[in-house]
Each structure stands twice: as structure tokens, then as C-alpha cells.
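Reviewers asked in the last cycle whether our approach scales beyond single polypeptides. To address this, we selected a multi-component target totalling 243 residues and predicted its structure end to end. The input consisted of the following lines:
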Amino acid sequence: MIDLHCHILDAIDDGARDADDSVAMARQAEADGIEAVCATPHIRHDHDVRIEELAGRVAGLNAKLEQELVAVRILQGGEVAETAVEGLSEEELMLLSLGGGGWILLEPAPGPLDDSLLRRVAYLADRGHRTIIAHPERHLSADMFERMAALVEEGALIQATADFFLRENMAAGMLAMAEKGLVHVLSSDAHTVLGGRPLRISPALERLREIEWLAPHLGWIAETAPNAIVSGDPLEVPFEPRI
Ligand SMILES: [Fe+2]
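The resulting structure, written as C-alpha cells, was:
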């Protein structure tokens, strides 16, 4: 498995506190059967991430993981705020794409999903990039499923937060979203081992198995899609929104 959304680089945004925290996060990934983690620091006005330094930071963490005998590799990426995309050069967009495969992990602006997000997906498509919408379930509105379906129609994929499927107060809503064909990939969006969501995907994948029509597609969700995304290989979604 590959985790496509994770704040594993230390002292760069609100993610890992220090190098030991990054290594501990990678150990969580390894224990869950995750072989690769995309480092996706916030590209947003309130975090001063130097895009040109990311390759060095990723290489540094990979060297440390090798030293510590952790069998997880870190891939480059970013969680790009929708308000930041227009200001990024083509070179920067490629450096922020997940694993360098061209896909952009796009963070919706705070508040309910709105038309601006759809316009950004189309804008990125015009620039030759496909989009993955980061955790739209955190942007609640009465029409959120319709809005997600419209984003999918525009060519986007939906990334759901894996651990929300295990939370008592959120599991039903997350399963409803998956039931409607609006979950394409599961990611941890983990920030630290010191609190919040752990770096794991497989327990959420097991919850998806409860949805009868989706069960045959779990291999696509867990392996086929993430592998194609980080490789930049062609990818067809084997199911459509059911709303
Ligand atoms: Fe995130």
C-alpha cells in the first residue's frame, strides 16, 4: 500500500515534530503494511515550505529510514491549498505532484465545498494535471455528495481520511460516502505519533469490505490507484458515483 497524504517531514509544517517523530511515523506505516508514504507538507499561506528544498528533505529522511532499518520509502509531494495553485509555476507543480507522477493533492478552502474547487480542478486539468481532492468529508454541507460527484465528473479522484472510518461519530457518514462511490483512495493524513490519527490504512480498508458492490474494488483502491498515481501511469476508475 501507499499512503498518498501524510505530514511525515519534520519541522516543515504542522506535521512531525522532529526526526524521531518522522521515523516513528514510518514504523507505524511499516506495521500496517504500507511500503511507501508521500510526504505532503502544506503548501498554504500559513506555512513557509520551500518547494526547492523538498527533494533534499525527502532524500534525508529516506537515508535515515534505511539507517534505522525501516522498510518504508518516502516519496515527494505536497498538499496544495486550492488558493495556492494559480501562484505555482509548472516546475513547482511537478515537484509537488504525488511521487512526481503529475497528480496534485488539492486541499479545499475552509468551509463547505463550493464552485471555486471545481474551477481549480478544471484549471489544473488545463495545465495538464489531474487532481485528488484531499479529505472533502471535512467540508460538510447538505449538498456535499452532489458536489463530490461533480468533481469526479470533472476528472478528480476523492481521497478519504482512513481513520475517520473507525471513529464512532464519523463511521456511518464515511461509509455512506463510500457507498455512493465517492471514495477512490484512503490516506492517513497523519501528522505525528504524539497525537491525532496514526499512520495506517488497512483497518479502514476492512470497513469498506462491508459495502457489497465496492468489495471487488478494494484491490484497486489499495494498490492499483495509488501505484498508478505515483507512477503517472494511465488510470481508469472502475466505478462511478451512485447518487
Ligand atoms: Fe493534510
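DSSP finds eight helices and nine strands in the chain. We regard this as preliminary and will revisit it once experimental data from Aim 1 are available.
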